């Protein structure tokens, strides 16, 4: 979902997930009345169905919290679940969703870092007790 949305706005996308099945579109299906994922349920096919495949760079099976890149490789923006901001170019942006259990939430729960400036914190209400925050930070 994040890669498709980013490609829609013209970003070249590269995906990383620790789960091999997620990267390659294998395993249990999320569609109703379907047991296993079909050949059209993977990252590249998802982008192709939206005529966005030209923005697809690659997808890696990797732990995104560990360096997967050769030293000196940097991105202009990273859109992810935290904490993957160390390869962002200075002055560029990290955007991520932060899931929140509403009854326990306080603004102090938003992860901050001395090298990152909080730009915005927008809420998307999911239910009476849950929400997610779209956090934007600049390095």
TrEMBL record:
GO terms for molecular function: methyltransferase activity; nucleic acid binding. InterPro entries: DNA_methylase_N6_adenine_CS, SAM-dependent_MTases_sf. SUPFAM superfamilies: S-adenosyl-L-methionine-dependent methyltransferases (SSF53335). One of its GO terms (biological process) is methylation. Keywords: Methyltransferase, Transferase. GO terms for cellular component: cytoplasm. This is Uncharacterized protein.
